[in-house]
Amino acid sequence: MPPMLLGTGQRIGDVLKMRWDDIEDGGIWVRQQKTGAGIFVPFTDGLDAILEQTPRQGDTIIAQPNGRPCSYSFAHKLVTEVRVKIDAMAWDIHALRHSAAAEIASLPGMSIEHVMAITGHSSEQMARHYSRKADMREKAREAQNARRTKRESGNAC
To answer: How far does the chain reach from its first CA to its final CA, in angstroms?
Structure first.
């Protein structure tokens, strides 16, 4: 479940509803519950490899051993057990959505529109909330690299 959350950048409710037949052309079609927006999310290489090895136990990708869809409460219980085991109670399920947005924002050449395309946010303000720190870190690196380049070319004091 965490690889689906991090790999797609979607909310837990949307990940739990993802179906095998929603997969197409190296990604997945998602109808977001909160907004009703339909988006296409390409898979990361890592997520694609995990899905290749995941047994199809039901119509949904995240399913119980009997093939029935996994409920939010059951998913929350499983993730909480792992969080306790690895001493990660400060981070909840939704933190993986933040992490996906932050990762995208930190990549060279990525814009807030790229973050929005994956997360499905319709407002730049909310997408920026998710990716603010990583975006700031990347912009700061770009700025310092530009200063370094200028200094090395002899154009700075």
So the answer is: 53
